[in-house]
Structure formats: structure tokens, C-alpha cells
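Input.
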Amino acid sequence: KLDVVLTDRAVHSGTNLRLFSHLLFESDMVVVGAHELAKKYAKGFPANLNGAPFLLPTRNNALRGRIDEWFELQHVRPDVAGEFEDNALLTTFGRRGHGLFFAPAALTNDLAEQFGSQLVGRVPQVREQFYAVSNERKIEHPAVQAILSAVHRGTLGPG
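Output.
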């Protein structure tokens, strides 16, 4: 039995299951990359991203549609260097300089410290949401309550 699932999308209301989505936080997105790529594409962002190598989530990811729409609105045709279902794997490829990638702005400092990723540009038009999904309207599990309390206090999430 699962007490909570952390995910990037809310549960659809049309489901027969009694599940409840609790919005933890949402964040603007940024484009980041390894030093050489960041240096090359930061100047003139976002107009200079045509042909830039990008590591993207797969099309079944909630964020991907928003990213594709942003590319379209910016008239950017990236070179998709890889598509990933696993965000940790995507970040690993990004850290090794295989492409630029989108990340929550709330994690910019962490990505710089842990992986040496550098900011290329901010993309406030694209936002990612983070949800806790449970089978209870009011979450009773102490660990899940601690997560939600941290979010509400502002000690977890955008900072």
C-alpha cells in the first residue's frame, strides 16, 4: 500500500479511484548546460537556440508539451540529442555536456553545486508543478505530513 506518490501531474477527476492531488509547489523553468554549452548559448538567448543540442523529457511527460510549445512560440528548432523518461539520467547526460536541458528554476543553485551546470536562460513561460497524490483527502501518514508542512513553511520547494 502506497501512502503517497510524488509526481508532476494531478490526478484526472474522471477516474474511478478515490485519489486526491495536493499541489506541493510549482516553479518556472530555466535552461542549463555544462560550461562550454552554456557559454556558447547564453548570449542572445533564446534566439540563438536554433540547432542547439537539447536533452528533453519524452513526449508522455507533462512538461514536454509545454517545452515544445515554448520552442514553437520562440521559433526555435532545437537538435534533440536525446529523450529521457528518467530525469536523473537526463541530468547525467547534461552534466557530461551532451546537451542543454530544462530544469526547475528552484533547483538552479543545486544543479550548479552538484553537477556544475550553468544557467543559459530563464523560461518563465514554462512552469512545472509537483504534486503529492494520496488516497486520502487529508493525509494522515506522519512522513507525508512532514513533507507537506515543509512545503507550506517554504523550507521545501522554490527557495
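The longest strand covers residues 118-134.
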